[in-house]
């Protein structure tokens, strides 16, 4: 009976063979990225799923009580909780409204930009660039100030126009008014991406195509609908899916503008809800379960995005 | 002609509306405190003052948080660019079996909603902090670690094209001159991809600079290690917000990003800019 070679020597021989053929080299270059991504992205993702199956609350964190595997209990709690469904509904409606608003504003302004004099267009793009560059935190702060009940210019202007009901009016007090305020901030800082991308798309349509359609007797509306829209489809799909992905995981704006999720949690969205369950209520297992749901939903959307990119010929 | 004038007027009005919040931010940062507290609605000020900036920088120690933010962002830029550049070299200049799989994994890594990872990352940082305090909770190292990981996938994706664009002949020439493959990567490839490195660095910087969620989760009790977004939020006090200070702080936090955006503006349309928000 042949004794098996010691594992170390086998590994050493395999390594030498790899090195000889130069096959080890790419892995040396990949090593730092793989270590970083493995330890700080893949491992936490695995932990997120794992923790969601445990009864993991404050006593378990401090070590006062032992960690207990609880199977699907967190998910059952979640699905039976009416607040979870309300939050999920909030998230879908809010994200949907943000996406619609961003696309509508960005799309209209992209079309408008093609008809402006060069200097006005430059001013519009500069203003949009400023809105785009504003960090979410400062954008939220400025927006809160603009809509401050007594000191904000919006209420002052409305009251000045004779609508005295707006004197001291709080925009964050009722649920949908608060969501509307956050929505306007989100649209303000994300429409520039849509506008710039679609504007570039419109500009890349060759003039001859439009000319040909016009010679064939097509009206302006008809050209927009039957010629330009199909040619813009790839750009539209990208900005739509990107917007869905961002708006679905908004955290900062909601957290800051509604003070952590609004009065009695009326403005919670999935990410803020998971955060509050974990770090405010100490329900780490439950928070992780919400995180898993969010991740699953977003990865599903992202996979659609990936397929679209591949179909559009992005080289891998 | 009249029609042109009308669209131009509409475009101009919209540009003003879009720019208004930023204008109001800068204006309020320069208004005297008494005017702000009286709710002065004038869209201009005749007595601009740097008092609010002085208050933030001297009294509230904003300079320290600014340096913290700068330090974290700079470290993330260096580490993520290094990791991403080397990975991009491997993924574009070598043919090996798992290459396509790795590329797809990079793309998927880019799409992981990092916000959902707050809970496990919090515990990971707590664990790391037990052996290396500087990289654990309440230390800036924890933020450097996570943001390096968040910025790397996009940076790999962006640098790939730049690295691939360097012609093969250069590699053969340097090989004939006796350079090892590492020398080629360091002395030839890296300088030639400099424009790509600058662009990815800027995106990594902005992503890190803007982060609020991890900064507020990881830096719990060490106030001296806070970064700008969290420090700015601490100016909000129930019913007595010092708006002058909040707006001055906002100006200080927005300016660097604005400058960087002007640098990369031509690249924004390609869709890469999309990764910055969110």
Automatic annotation (TrEMBL), chain A:
One GO CC annotation: plasma membrane
Transmembrane segments: 27-46, 92-112, 124-146, 176-202, 223-246, 252-274, 286-306
Membrane topology reported for the UniProt record: Multi-pass membrane protein
Leader sequence segment: none
Subcellular locations according to the entry: Cell membrane
ABC transmembrane type-1 domain segment(s): 88-305
Entry keywords, A to Z: Cell membrane, Membrane, Sugar transport, Transmembrane, Transmembrane helix, Transport
Major location category of this protein: membrane
InterPro entries: MetI-like, MetI-like_sf, UgpAE/MalFG_permease
GO biological process: transmembrane transport
Record-stated family: Belongs to the binding-protein-dependent transport system permease family.
PANTHER family from the UniProt entry: BLL4140 PROTEIN (PTHR43227), DIACETYLCHITOBIOSE UPTAKE SYSTEM PERMEASE PROTEIN DASB (PTHR43227:SF8)
The protein, known as: Sugar transporter
């Amino acid at each position: 009976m042949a004794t098996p070679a010691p594992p170390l020597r086998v590994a050493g021989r395999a390594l030498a063979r790899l090195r000889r053929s130069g096959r080890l080299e790419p892995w040396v270059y990949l090593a730092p990225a793989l270590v970083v991504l493995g330890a700080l992205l893949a491992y936490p993702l695995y932990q997120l799923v794992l923790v969601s199956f445990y009864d993991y609350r404050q006593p378990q964190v401090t070590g006062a009580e032992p960690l207990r595997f609880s199977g699907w209990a967190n998910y059952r709690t979640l699905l039976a909780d009416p607040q979870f469904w309300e939050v999920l509904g909030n998230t879908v409606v809010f994200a949907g409204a943000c996406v619609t608003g961003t696309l509508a504003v960005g799309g209209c302004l992209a079309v408008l930009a093609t008809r402006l004099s060069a200097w006005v267009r430059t001013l519009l793009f500069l203003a949009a660039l400023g809105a785009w560059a504003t960090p979410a935190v400062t954008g939220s702060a400025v927006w809160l100030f603009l809509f401050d009940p007594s000191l904000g210019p919006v209420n002052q202007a409305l009251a000045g126009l004779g609508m005295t009901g707006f004197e001291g009016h709080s925009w964050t007090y009722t649920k949908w008014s608060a969501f509307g305020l956050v929505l306007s901030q989100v649209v303000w800082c994300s429409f520039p991406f849509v506008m710039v991308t679609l504007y570039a798309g419109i500009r890349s349509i060759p003039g001859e195509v439009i000319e040909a359609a016009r010679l064939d007797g097509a009206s302006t509306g008809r050209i927009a609908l039957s010629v330009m829209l199909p040619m813009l489809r790839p750009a539209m799909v990208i900005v739509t899916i990107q917007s869905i992905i961002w708006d679905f995981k908004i955290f900062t704006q909601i957290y800051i503008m509604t003070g952590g999720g609004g009065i009695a949690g009326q403005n919670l969205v999935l990410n803020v809800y998971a955060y509050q369950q974990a770090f405010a209520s100490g329900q780490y297992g439950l928070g992780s379960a919400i995180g898993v749901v969010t991740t699953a939903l977003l990865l599903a959307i992202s996979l659609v995005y990936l397929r679209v990119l591949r179909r559009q010929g992005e080289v891998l | 002609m009249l029609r042109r004038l009308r669209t131009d007027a509409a475009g101009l009005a919209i540009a003003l509306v879009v720019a208004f919040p930023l204008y109001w931010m800068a204006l309020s940062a320069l208004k005297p405190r008494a005017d702000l507290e009286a709710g002065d609605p004038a869209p201009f000020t005749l007595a601009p003052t740097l008092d609010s900036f002085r208050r933030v920088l001297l009294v509230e120690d904003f300079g320290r948080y600014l340096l913290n933010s700068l330090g974290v962002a700079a470290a993330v830029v260096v580490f993520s660019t290094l990791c991403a550049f080397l990975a991009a070299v491997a993924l574009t200049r070598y043919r090996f079996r798992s290459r396509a799989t790795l590329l797809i994994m990079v793309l998927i890594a880019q799409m992981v909603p990092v916000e959902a990872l707050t809970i496990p990352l919090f515990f990971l940082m707590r664990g790391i902090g037990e052996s290396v305090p500087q990289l654990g909770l309440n230390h800036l190292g924890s933020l450097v670690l996570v943001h390096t990981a968040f910025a790397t996938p996009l940076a790999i994706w962006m640098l790939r094209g730049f690295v691939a664009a360097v012609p093969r002949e250069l590699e053969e020439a340097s090989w004939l001159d006796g350079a090892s493959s590492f020398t080629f990567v360091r002395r030839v490839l890296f300088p030639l991809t400099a424009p790509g490195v600058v662009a990815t660095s800027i995106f990594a910087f902005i992503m890190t600079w803007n982060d609020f969620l991890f900064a507020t989760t990881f830096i719990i009790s060490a106030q001296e290690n806070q970064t700008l977004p969290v420090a700015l939020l601490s100016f909000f006090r129930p019913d007595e917000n010092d708006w002058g200070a909040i707006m001055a702080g906002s100006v200080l936090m927005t300016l660097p990003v604005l400058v960087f955006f002007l640098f990369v503006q031509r690249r924004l349309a390609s869709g890469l800019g999309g990764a910055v928000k969110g």
